[in-house]
TrEMBL record:
Keyword set includes Lyase: no
Protein task: Catalyzes the attachment of proline to tRNA(Pro) in a two-step reaction: proline is first activated by ATP to form Pro-AMP and then transferred to the acceptor end of tRNA(Pro). As ProRS can inadvertently accommodate and process non-cognate amino acids such as alanine and cysteine, to avoid such errors it has two additional distinct editing activities against alanine. One activity is designated as 'pretransfer' editing and involves the tRNA(Pro)-independent hydrolysis of activated Ala-AMP.
Gene Ontology cellular-component annotations: cytosol
The protein, known as: Proline--tRNA ligase
EC number: 6.1.1.15
Gene3D superfamilies the record matches: Anticodon-binding domain (3.40.50.800), Bira Bifunctional Protein, Domain 2 (3.30.930.10)
NCBIfam families with a match to the protein in the record: PRK09194.1 (NF006625), proS_fam_II (TIGR00409)
Pfam families given in the database record: HGTP_anticodon, tRNA-synt_2b, tRNA_edit
The species this protein was found in: Planotetraspora thailandica
Length: 580
């Protein structure tokens, strides 16, 4: 491949686009890789299209390597498939919906579980047909609430989605591990810096779902990570290390007058001043009442969650812990219906007699003593001991995770970082197979319900993530595997420099390299150098003033090193750099 700048459909910009906030967006637009059409909708220009295809090629090679087979579904889909699984409704405003000329409902596919399930059901019937894994690389449509950062969060974007179909749970685990390995190879080859994060709590089966997150300041996801070991997780999936049970004996429970102590801070200073307890907020037990609704039923349970008073409840963690139950705020009128619950002064001592379920943070271990509500207005109780004065019904991961908390794997302090999701692997189980009635006929003639995994890679997003992670103040810096070409040869000057640059370019192309040559006549060296930095190809060869003395300059865009080399060595040196 030989691209000539004199004819290449490319215009670089000196100014950042007005609507761009993050570096990847600014640079991809300035370097002429993408152009905005509408919010979250972009066109790809020649260089951008090459990078996008390079990412897709790596993904395709690694999917093929694990035996996945490529198919292609339409993006335009009839409503019925998504009606059957309830997602026509569930997707809400995120779904692009449209009608055909007859008034029938259609949608633009946001993801394709339903279609793949249906396709397999149509073709396969016997247990002998399984397992099978199918994938596609295709344009997806989501009317994102906040499209942002150019192609990072688009409303139209390219995704690789694959789906595994297995006869049993062991098969699903195997398919999942194969994908996990493939994703590691994909992101390693692409040169993306990433962490693999548990996306679901251990209660749901360990690694039933993991996200590949690219650390980036501009990322919208936060994740918890250990800098000592490779543990990383979404906040929802973090498991609190359980301290050992307390065996020392505690004083008897004591009820204290605590007027005017509406906050944990006022309570702590009051009991320390008045009663000399010497406690901190972490010694208080804060109790939150919630209503838990079970979807598809009228049942609403009253539930109380106890967490140490120095921590807030993280509602997302609470939701994940109660899933599929949905927590709701316990309102003033709910308190009216539960006179046993004294708002602001709830303590777990009475919950058994009230018949209310009580779940505690894992730090509330047997034998631990707390200052908590005394279930009377204006009163708290001290030395309230777990296992003696109250008996929790279980533990729950609902307290916030903080930087500095202990890593559940190695005990070192955790940090909280920001990242961008680039891939997601998920053991779906039988949800879609149940909806579609996807069975295989077993050896005994009985049907076997198929179990599925779903796996996504943000192909277009990966382009933005690479730009986000690998750039400097001058421009982009593509890893070779995805760069639009291996080498950018710049010819500058009035003599025969452009001619020589073009000859080297042709030689290198003949030797199998992908080459971009700046052969534009009448463009100043300064402009050409700036463009080379902005476009970000890994190797730059400058054929300039030194040519008269038989030297050219070799630059490495990633390291910034520059070296004068003899013209005669130019071809071999560029080839060596490309093969390094
Ligand atoms: P996010 O939380 O970022 O919205 P998601 O959980 O909706 O992602 P999935 O439905 O798992 O993502 O989609 C698979 C992959 O597709 C994601 O890992 C991400 O890389 C990519 N992706 C999702 N939404 C977008 C988007 N709006 N623009 C570009 N890529 C996207
Ligand atoms: Mg999303």
């Amino acid at each position: 491949m030989l691209l000539r700048m004199s004819t290449l459909f490319l215009r670089t910009l000196r100014e950042d686009p007005a609507d761009a906030e993050v570096p990847s967006h600014k640079l991809l637009v300035r370097a002429g890789y993408v152009r905005r059409v509408a919010p979250g909708i972009y066109s790809w220009l020649p260089l951008g299209k090459i990078v996008l295809e390079n990412v897709a090629r790596v993904v395709r090679e690694e999917m093929d390597r694990i035996g996945a087979q490529e198919v292609l579904f339409p993006a335009l889909l009839p409503r019925d498939y998504y009606e059957a699984t309830g997602r026509w409704t569930e997707y809400g405003d995120t779904l692009f919906r449209l009608k055909d000329r007859k008034g029938a409902d259609y949608l633009l596919g946001p993801t394709h579980e339903e279609m793949f399930t249906d396709m397999v059901k149509g073709e396969y019937s016997s247990y002998k047909d399984y397992p099978v894994t199918l994938y596609q690389i295709q344009t997806k449509y989501r009317d994102e609430a906040r499209p942002r950062a150019g192609i990072l969060r688009g409303r139209e974007f390219v995704m690789k989605d694959s789906y595994s179909f297995d006869l049993d749970d062991d098969g699903l685990k195997r398919s999942y591990e194969l994908h996990r390995d493939a994703y590691i190879r994909i992101f390693d080859r692409l040169g993306i810096d990433y962490r693999i994060c548990f996306a679901m709590s251990g209660a749901m089966g360990g690694s039933a779902s993991e996200e590949f997150l690219a650390p980036a300041e501009t990322g919208e996801d936060t994740f918890v990570a250990c800098r000592n070991c490779d543990y990383a997780a979404n906040a929802e999936a973090v498991i609190t290390p359980v301290p050992p049970a307390v065996t020392t004996s505690q004083p008897a429970l004591q009820v204290l007058d605590t007027p005017n102590t509406p906050t944990i801070e006022t309570l702590v200073s009051h009991v320390n001043e008045q009663f000399g307890l010497g406690i901190t907020a972490a010694d208080t037990l804060k109790n939150l009442v919630v209503k838990v609704r079970t979807p598809g039923s009228d049942e609403v349970e009253t539930l109380i969650i106890g967490v140490p008073g120095d921590r807030e409840i993280d509602f997302k963690r609470l939701e994940a812990a109660l899933d599929p139950g949905v927590p709701e705020i316990f309102e003033a009128e709910d308190f009216v219906r539960h006179p046993g619950l004294v708002r602001g002064y709830i303590g777990p001592q009475v919950l058994k007699s009230l018949g209310i379920r009580y779940l505690v943070d894992p730090r509330v271990v047997t034998g631990s003593a707390w200052v908590t509500g005394a279930n009377e207005p204006g009163k708290h109780a001290a030395h309230v001991v777990a296992g003696r004065d109250f008996e929790p019904d279980g533990t729950i991961e609902a307290a916030e995770v903080r930087a500095g908390d202990a890593c559940p794997r190695c005990g070192h302090p955790l940090s909280i970082d920001r990242g961008i999701e680039i891939g997601h692997i998920f053991q779906l189980g039988r949800k879609y197979a149940d909806a579609a009635g996807l069975d295989a006929l077993g050896p005994d003639g009985k049907p076997i319900r198929i179990t599925m995994g779903s796996y996504g890679v943000g192909v277009s997003r990966a382009v933005a993530v690479l730009a986000e992670q690998q750039h400097d103040e001058l421009g982009l810096r593509w890893p070779r595997e995805v760069a639009p070409a291996d080498v950018h040869i710049v010819g500058t000057g009035k003599e025969n420099q452009i001619e020589v640059a073009t000859q080297i370019a042709e030689t290198l192309e003949a030797r199998g390299l992908r080459v971009l040559v700046d052969d534009r006549p009448g463009v100043s060296p300064g402009v050409k150098f700036k463009d080379a930095e902005l476009l970000g190809l890994p190797t730059v060869l400058i054929v300039g003033r030194g040519l008269a003395q038989g030297v050219v300059e070799l630059r490495d865009r990633a390291t910034g090193t520059k070296e004068e080399i003899p013209l005669a060595e130019a071809v071999d040196r560029v080839l060596a750099a490309a093969q390094a």
